Amino acid sequence: MKQLPIKRTAVLVGSGLLAAGLSWSSVADQTTPVQGLYQHNPNLIAFTNATLVTEPGERLENATLVMENGIIRSIERNNRAPQGARVIDASGYTLYPGFIDPYSNYGVAEPGSAAPRGRSGTPIYSNERQGGNASNSAIHAEKNWVDTFQPNADQAKNYVAQGFTTVQSARLDGIFQGQATTVSLANTIANDAIYLANGQHFGSFDKGSSTQQYPASLMGSIALVRQTLSDSRWYAEAAGLQASNGQVEFNAALAALAELSNRGLVFHADNEQNLLRAHQVLNSFEVPVTYVGSGFEYARMDDIKATNARLIIPLNFPAAPQLSEQYSELDVSLADLRHWERAPSNPAALAEADVAFAFTLHGMEKAADFWPNLRKAVAHGLSSERALAALTTVPAEIAGVANQSGKLAPGFRGDLVVSRGDLFADGEIVSVWLQGEETKLQSMHPVDFKGEWQLQAMGTEFTLNVSGNGALQGKLSIGFSDEAGDNDTSVKVANLNQADEQLRFTANLNDLGMPGVFRFALTQSSLNSLQGSVVDANGQTHPLMAQASSAASAENEEASAASANAQAEPLISRVTYPNVAFGQERLPEQQNLHIRNATVWTADDQGVLENADIIVRNGIIRRVGQDLSTPRGYQVIDATGLHVTPGIIDEHSHIAISQGVNEGTEAITSEVRIGDVVNPDDIHIYRSLAGGATVAHLLHGSANPIGGQGQTIKLRWGENAEGLKFRETPPTIKFALGENVKQSNWGGANTIRYPQTRMGVAQIMQDAFQQAREYEQAKRDYENLSRAERRRTAPPRTDYRLEAILQVINSERYTHVHSYVASEVLALMDVVEQQGFKIHTFTHILEGYKVAKEIAEHGAGASSFADWWAFKIEAFDAIPQNMCLMMEQGVLTSINSDSNDLQRRLNTEAAKSVRYCGMSEADALKMITLYPAMQLEIDEYVGSITEGKHADLVFWNAHPLSAYAQVQQTWIEGRKYFDREADLQAREAVNAERQALIQKVLGAGEEAYRGASNGYRQQQPTWHCEDNHDVWLDWFGDHHHGHSHELGGTE
């Protein structure tokens, strides 16, 4: 490839340019006084003979681009340069618009080291209020990062080397992180680098460097986002007015968030589920949002597309899972193998779904992997046009600079990328221009001299062969090697070296009939041609020309074409919902059924029916009886020898929850919602179906007296989080008594949160109820004000914490209380009776037999373990006759699991009451079907095989209370979600897919392990009632962002 020659036309130092309104200066800002001599540096540049990709899909050949003082002045289809311009011949080169990264922390200082927090540090429960900041230290919305922006040349190198010229930047720390600024990566003063001072706000669920305890769970972060956005709306109305409890505070953070509807928000979601969760809450406040994705979007593409949001995605393709050691494959999940194969196709999948997206360097372990990964994405189906859009026009829109960057057009910034060849095939970036100034990344004409060259000099033809991977070696012979009668006589060359893009060597040509030592020098003149000179033994200089041999030239062209047209191997993995082993490729279809000749355990007044039939239409049980006729078009299931029961219902479960089961940081967290963090990817959903469970009540843990809101789900394996929710269920909430809520055994540092005693537990609940009543009264008082009074009075602030407690008081939200000890149960019943409502269900309640009469009189239900005891002090008095004794006193009693394992065996847990205390089999079955349905107030829909209820049915091959009984099929609303025979086939299919992917990894060799080590998702643990830790920290108390630190920044 020939060099880009630079020349100048005559410079006119006169009135012509000045009359056109053009400035000479290219480096000075407008307000700094000149120090010393005024620099008259003309900066008029013309690229001629260039290929211009002006924007995605638009390409000009042999065109001229003129820029002056960092701004593109014109684009012409001729190759004429304006008078006085510095002319750069760009023949054979392609010019692209400078690339834009819309998500970075470039030029913004990292947060300082925070005080230690976690189990070993003293808990911090409140934020130090100063300067109008928010009450939570994870909220920094008032920060405007243009105020502290400072160009950072070292950090810029990582971006510029990949062709980036512009970034949108803020400190990536906290939940509402402040307002970003869009800046140039040019090596200039901050004032000249700023393209858009006030860009979008940045946000995430990760509380970052905040030392405040709250929030410590994902649901806590979501609740804080919801409350903060609500508060910002309230503040817009209330600022400067008098509230019922005094003058409305000044709050700069809330004032700044009022601009969200105009500025927009860039929100970092570390996986596709969190993206959808963020959209649920942000969309409810009509926030225009762009999401920073994770590379897993393909796993929930339809849901992602439905958000209609733009994405910013990393190209962080993972290295293959390690399979080097024997048996190591046993530790590798099918989900990870699938992601290794499919991650490079994620951009193409987004493009095919017509989702607008931009690329970012954020989250990449190595900036140098950016272009290899982008080309890999192109090989996996992403068009070069969409790839360029993700680097230019789309991020320009996100970063608010679409009127000045992202295209090559008159009036736009002189931010260019110069490449040799097609960047999205085998091209390479030669230089990057930022604000009209060049940053050279490599020579414009690098030469690989290795190979065979045909030389002509002094009327003689030679063949030069150059080889070697380190030190070059060569030999020279007379004549061309492809001519007939090749001359085998050759001489070794000496002093062979490549320096300054020039090949030099000497050769003693005595054996070739040319006496003396000759000195050769060659420089590349075009892709396959060299030119230079040779000095003979007499000191005479002769012109020298060289051409790559036709075979070598053809080989180079073929290699280049092969690289440009390289396509990835076909994908062999499947995408299922969820995208894990045993996921569904498609949701099961709802079927109309005639179930015949079954032993039907109705769990209603009909009892057990032998040789009975069930008719199911549109997911509803239509008829139950014997010898029923089959309606036309119905599927017939011969259930001879099988038992059919209602689907099992678990009153107390912690499966299918993401990133924390407890928000245990404060004593009252009624604002947090398990419904915000339902995890549809949890394999325990499928496993529970295999045990006959169809409904689970997902509860907050037991870390505080008043915990979070519950969520009842149906185990519709394959649905998304919203599709799992049992919509007809009334709202619930978790209360807790006992040792956990007063922080017993939490460590010596956790002794300052109220309450620390059982007396305090009752007191703080009473206080919460009083706050809620006063809150309700304040809302009433405001509604009763006259119009004139309302204009002078701040409206009441919506408090989601008190809203939930008010629902409890008004019997609109049902309480499920973690409880063990009888005395505490009596105390709580006394407290709530004073408030005029009742506890709905005591859960665990191992000492319920002691106060069964009082529980029955109160009107509460009880849901307990069958025979758990002595696992902690509170459980020492547990007895296996507990359920029978409570039921005898008229307490509505059920059995729960509180365990992902036990949830699969609730039928045998129920059978224990038959064994221990003679409970009837019918009542035992009802303890896991009808009675928990009644406790959840969903018995209108489920819990028994009754006409009009949902067709949630379980087929057993033996008596359902037998330890030998196995579930054969599990149906929910007429859809088959588990089938034992299909499961056996699925196991074979899963193994076959795993082995095929393992073979693909092994077959790829070392190439398979060229990738990021942080490219896989973090696995969710199995949650238990007492699990209480900060999910934004690792187990050692260090901050865990879930991604790598920003490129070029300090760690």
UniProtKB/TrEMBL annotation:
Name listed for the protein in its UniProt record: Amidohydrolase
Keywords of the record: Coiled coil, Hydrolase, Signal
Residue ranges the record marks as coiled coil: 765-792
Signal sequence annotation: 1-28
Location of the Amidohydrolase-related domain: 349-437, 886-970
Keyword Electron transport recorded: no
Transmembrane spans: none
InterPro entries assigned: Amidohydro-rel, Metal-dep_hydrolase_composite, Metal_Hydrolase, Metallo-dep_Hydrolase
Molecular function in Gene Ontology: hydrolase activity, acting on carbon-nitrogen (but not peptide) bonds
Stored CDD domains: Met_dep_hydrolase_C
Residue segments, region Disordered: 114-135
UniProt cross-references to SUPFAM superfamilies, sorted A to Z: Composite domain of metallo-dependent hydrolases (SSF51338), Metallo-dependent hydrolases (SSF51556)
Organism: Aliidiomarina iranensis
Keyword match Ion transport: no
Biased amino acid composition, Polar residues: 123-135
UniProt xrefs under PANTHER family: ALPHA-D-RIBOSE 1-METHYLPHOSPHONATE 5-TRIPHOSPHATE DIPHOSPHATASE
